[in-house]
């Protein structure tokens, strides 16, 4: 989903949630101006949310890019279903199984998505010094609070 589409979807959802309350609380304005103000506020919030996701995705991309001599290792990585911790952040267990005959380090991009597949957040986890044929665990924790159900997927996984 593009940033523009994400902003428009969030704006529509927030407008639908805010509009009835704003109209009911409006004392001096008419319904049209109240609706316009609510839509503007919703669009502003949606824009900031999309910018946060875009920023996280850019930071993750840079970390992956800076991982030197990486080889695709997506098949070596498994993720648990995310759970929400006490701070409202989604956390998924990352399990890396080193399928080679030498000690390796891994970098894993974890994408958190809503049930419709919309990208909510992106994090990068490094798992260093995984022994040959062994498995090692780490945790991928979202950068911010995520509401509702989320799922975690491996975006990119590299080893060296």
Characteristics:
160 residues; alpha+beta; four-stranded antiparallel beta sheet; disordered N terminus
Task: Please report the total strand number as a whole number.
Answer: 8
Beta-strand content bin: 35-45%
Mean pLDDT: 74
Strand arrangement within the widest β-sheet reads 1-8-5-6
Main β sheet profile: 4 strands, antiparallel
Poorly predicted spans? 1-48
Helix/sheet category: alpha+beta
N- to C-terminal distance: 31 Å
Please compute the radius of gyration using only Cα atoms: 20 Å
Number of DSSP helical runs: 2
> What sort of overall outline do the alpha carbons produce when their principal axes are compared?
globular
The succession of helices and strands, N to C, reads HHEEEEEEEE
**Helicity, as a percent range:** 25-40%
Word description of this protein:
With 160 residues, the chain is of the alpha+beta class. 36% of the residues lie in helices and 36% in strands. The chain contains two helices and eight strands; from the N terminus they run H-H-E-E-E-E-E-E-E-E. It has helices at 3-25, 31-65; strands at 71-72, 77-79, 83-84, 89-97, 104-113, 119-130, 135-145, 151-159. The strands form two sheets. It has a four-stranded antiparallel sheet, with helices on one face. A hairpin with a 5-residue loop joins strand 5 (104-113) and strand 6. Helix 1 (3-25) runs antiparallel to helix 2. The longest helix is centred in the first third of the chain and has 35 residues, at 31-65. It is globular and about 40 Å long. The protein starts with a helix and ends with a strand. The relative contact order is 0.18.
């Amino acid at each position: 989903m593009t940033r523009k589409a994400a902003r428009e979807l969030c704006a529509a959802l927030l407008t639908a949630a805010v509009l009835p309350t704003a109209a009911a609380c409006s004392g001096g304005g008419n319904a049209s101006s109240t609706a316009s103000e609510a839509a503007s506020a919703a669009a502003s919030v949606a824009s900031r949310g999309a910018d946060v996701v875009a920023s996280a995705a850019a930071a993750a991309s840079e970390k992956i890019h800076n991982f030197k001599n990486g080889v695709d290792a997506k098949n070596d990585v498994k993720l648990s279903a995310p759970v929400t911790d006490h701070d409202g952040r989604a956390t998924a267990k990352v399990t890396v199984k080193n399928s080679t005959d030498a000690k390796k380090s891994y970098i894993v991009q974890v994408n958190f998505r809503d049930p419709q597949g919309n990208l909510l957040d992106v994090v990068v986890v490094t798992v260093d010094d995984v022994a040959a044929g062994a498995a090692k665990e780490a945790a991928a924790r979202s950068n911010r609070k995520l509401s509702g159900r989320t799922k975690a997927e491996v975006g990119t996984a590299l080893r060296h």
